[in-house]
Specification:
mainly alpha; 252 residues; globular
Length: 252
Amino acid sequence: MDAAFAVADVGLWDFALVAVIAFCMSVIGGLSGYGIGLILPAFLAPVVGVVATIPVMSVAMIFANASRVWVYRHAMSWRYVALLLAVSLPMALIGSIVYTHLSADTIATALGVFMIISVPLRRKLQRGGFTLGPRGLAGVGAVYGLLAGGMSGSGLFMAAGLMAAGVHGAALIATDAAVSTAINLLKVGVFGGYSMYTADLVIAGIVIGLCTVPGAFVARRIMDRLPIQVHIWIMEVLIVCGGASFLWKALR
């Protein structure tokens, strides 16, 4: 493996830290319906290394998304799943291959910038009130695939596209989860082919994925007690701080 892709040595206490953070972030992410993929990388990078962050997240998000596929399988919009996979998988392949050739500083910069701009992007998409037909949604899927191939947390872009296409509620959650599961399986294959995994990193990804499951139930209880706007502000502050931490790592 190239020196640029060297990863941190992950020990028992590191696994414990990752497990606790994954659970906490899944609770916070569950309060607004998104955010695990945006927030967790900032906490994961010091444990596994910047370059290994997205490969580990890819393993974890397979578990997180596959569980949602199973829970909401009866609401699945298979027509949109097929459309989105047709355009997003090839672009995700390109994005993940590009990722394997980036330096740690470049990855940290890209993750930091993406996390910070995701806050105003989410607000703009939410206010936009735009609608999409099948072709427009295919375009969103292509952009999403490219971003998802080398980033974590681009799900907010996909969610906005599905809502604009008239997909809401359980159908949105199921459709997004199905596409995300397939993309993360592809990413794991690509990253594995480029020798970006060790046994410790794979186990870390599995631990994170398993720890996201109970957090969803805790979040649902908290949701009944706090205003949704407070949840969103918490998420945005954490995302911006996480993005700033990546930029600090890249520029120091």
